[in-house]
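Protocol step 4 of 5: obtain the predicted structure for the target chain.
Materials: sequence only (see below). No template structures provided, no constraints applied. The aim of this step is simply to have a reference model before the mutagenesis design in step 5. Sequence pasted as it appears in the construct record:
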Amino acid sequence: MIRAYKFLMRPTVRRTVALGEMLRDHCSLHNGALQERRDAYRHPSKTTVRYGQRSAQLKEVRAFDPQRQGRWSFSSQQATLRRLDKAFAAFFRRIKAAEKPGYPRFRPVNRFDTVDFPEDGDGCRWDSAPHDPVTRVRSPRAGHVRVHRHRPVVGKVKTISVKREGRRCYVILTVEQTEFVPLSATGSVVGIDMGLSDFLADSAGGFVSDPRHGGEVSAEIEAAQQALSRCRRGSKRRLKAGEGITRLHRKVRRQRLDHAHKAAGDLVREHDFIAHEDLNIRNMSKASEPQPNPDKPGSFLPNGAGAKAGLNKSINDAGWGVFLAILNAEAECAGREVIAVDLRNTSRHCPARGHTAKENRPAQEKFLCVNCGHAAHADTVGALNVLRAGLVRRGAIRHSEKPPRLRGGGVTLDGPGRPRRSDGGDSTRWRTPG
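Step 4 output (structure tokens):
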């Protein structure tokens, strides 16, 4: 199992300058490789320069410029060239998929923020004893840099990355863990339904509120961006205004991560099995397509772009993707099981009688079955249906002497792995006892 650790570096002034020079020289290598690839393709022969050719030329580049390129790790420079090759591979993949291509572009020095070291000890070494209160990372030319290790690193360090965020520098460790202690079994299963009015609802009827961290500081960010636009480019005043915007975004990102870790941790500790919707967040947060007006060439019909923009902003602020990634990672470490299921009709399917219709959801938070009159919160109904679909996918509904008990809605499995029906017959319909 692979885990990542991120720690704050506390370099001195001299070592901060050395780290900046390392980022600058790797940025120069990246831009030079990109320019060579562009020139080769513009040649009448349309030659493609790939990673293998650029890696073979590294010895010549280092010998030509020993004061800048020759003083850094060979493997870290190879990692920079691999990043460029991956960018081109993604560019051609998007072209084949008829998506917006996004051609790889040149990076200014202030936008090249990461240097990767593919192996611990090859150019950068993690120097930490298990009980040593002082932890350091040894990077080229910068020497030993103090690191604020706020938690122990368990496992073997595989790769090291040095990343700059604003005026701060972080070290990111990729660690391979061969052994981990799973949590004790609770015998509980749960389904969750993601939303915007509430961050999530579970099949037991519980809700986790959406803190909307981005919305709380949106006015401050807007005012800071307006102040930035009034500053002259290249001035110290503009630099200071940009750092203020960076601090606001960093605060929101940390709050969002903290909330996601706490919500995911509670689910993992309390349940052995967790089912959630398989959300395509990228498509859900896309902007509305313009609709040309056939009667007036050059004009467009109303397409609700303003309302969709507000919805997209709320989806991105909720941070569903970050939460699901953390949930899967923590569940893997704890020995829990997480399954994603198809989200179609999860909020329109009646858990009591199995009737599916659009009219079953007359409002955003209300569910009322037009067939049997079953009423409940729409998100709770969605979580129940997600749980049932997850159990079916896992193969948990099978013949057993002691059928599992589902938390939420009073839904009970009876007999040989089948739901209980009011008339006592075998049916795949669900009902709420009582």
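Step 4 remarks: Residues 185-212+247-287+316-434 form a domain with the Nucleotidyltransferase; domain 5 fold (CATH 3.30.420). The longest helix spans residues 236-270.
Proceed to step 5.
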